[in-house]
Amino acid sequence: MSEHNDDAEKEKKSNEEAANSSSEQEEVEHSDMEKIRKYLAQMLRLSDSSNYDEQSQQRVLRELSIDGVVDYIKENENCKIITMAGAGISTSAGIPDFRSPSSGLYHNLEKYNLPHPQAIFELDFFMENPEPFFTLARELLPEGFKPTPCHYFIRLLWEKGLLLRHYTQNIDTLERMAGLPPEKLVEAHGTFHTGRCLKCRAPYTLSWMKEKIMEGVVPKCEECNEGVVKPDIVFFGEMLPERFHFLADRDFAQADLLIIMGSSLVVQPFASLVDRVRSNCPRLLINKEKVGMQDRLSRLLGLRHGLIFDTRSSHGGRDVAWLGDCDTGCQLLAEKLGWGDELKELVKKEHERLSAETNAETSKD
């Protein structure tokens, strides 16, 4: 009996030692993982403060819905809002989304035997054969296009003193046409608003380039008579404008709310901007589908990377997705903020003004 008790005692002690060893091992692994997380967060600039974990585990919005975002804006009188936009805010204006397989833009360029569709936005290919780009440009130029309710919603944010900055991937200049001041606008991928000769760097205006492009000719420099005039849009392989990097470093750390509209959030470095706001800054996505979501590796490492719509996550509580077309989403948001009629009236008034200007120009011709 004594021997049996001794054996039981030994087994119990052995189990306790194994449990303690396992617990110690888990603590070491957890500590190592935390070190890795902190190192990567620091190197990748995905964490902005030592109290990130504490902040991110708190629900920032009372309700994870567009109503929760509206309440948040109303409660923060001087709310600094950054808006980010992609092609989805311009499609209702008639400007096709060239990334969509149903748009037909790339299909219309088949006769130029492009090595691949993106070649049309590659500088080396453009230098050899600029004609395909300018064929595409005729469809992308804001000729007769009018800004959408989404564009005017962004303008309303500015008029009400809430817009910190608008970051756009679009090159269509519709934000400018909507009346957004240049200082509030960051055209991350450049713009058709200006252009330069690739040979002598002589500057050219949109109106000059538009006239040539709509005539179906490749714009040639009138200064050196040699170079092709390229709009100031960013081609693949080119650096983004210095203004983008300078302002992004400053703006996103100040933002109280981030609104992302009509973007697939796949093109870098634009897509990574969503991670540069503070960890307690709410983020609203207005889009036809959920995009830019946190991947498994980032989730495993505990990195603040990507949008988190899973409310069960300990890092949830600030990201909201409203799915549908951008104009409807912006109109809904405006109505809930008490600006619905104001937005409709602004769109109506501005579209009438633009139509009158177009008719006047046509009469002159």
Automatic annotation (TrEMBL):
Its EC number is 2.3.1.286. Gene3D superfamilies: SIR2/SIRT2 'Small Domain, TPP-binding domain. It catalyses: N(6)-acetyl-L-lysyl-[protein] + NAD(+) + H2O = 2''-O-acetyl-ADP-D-ribose + nicotinamide + L-lysyl-[protein]; N(6)-tetradecanoyl-L-lysyl-[protein] + NAD(+) + H2O = 2''-O-tetradecanoyl-ADP-D-ribose + nicotinamide + L-lysyl-[protein]; N(6)-hexadecanoyl-L-lysyl-[protein] + NAD(+) + H2O = 2''-O-hexadecanoyl-ADP-D-ribose + nicotinamide + L-lysyl-[protein]. Zn(2+) binds at C197, C200, C221, C224. Residues 59-340 form the Deacetylase sirtuin-type domain. Residues 1-16 have a biased composition (Basic and acidic residues). GO terms for cellular component: nucleus. Transmembrane segments: none annotated. Pfam families: SIR2. Keywords: Metal-binding, NAD, Transferase, Zinc. InterPro entries: DHS-like_NAD/FAD-binding_dom, NAD-dep_sirtuin_deacylases, Sirtuin, Sirtuin_cat_small_dom_sf, Sirtuin_class_I, Ssirtuin_cat_dom. Its cofactor is Zn(2+). Coiled coil: none annotated. It is an enzyme of class 2 (transferase). SUPFAM superfamilies: DHS-like NAD/FAD-binding domain (SSF52467). Residues 1-34 are annotated as: Disordered. It comes from the Eukaryota. Belongs to the sirtuin family. Class I subfamily. This is NAD-dependent protein deacetylase. The lineage of its organism: Eukaryota, Metazoa, Ecdysozoa, Arthropoda, Hexapoda.
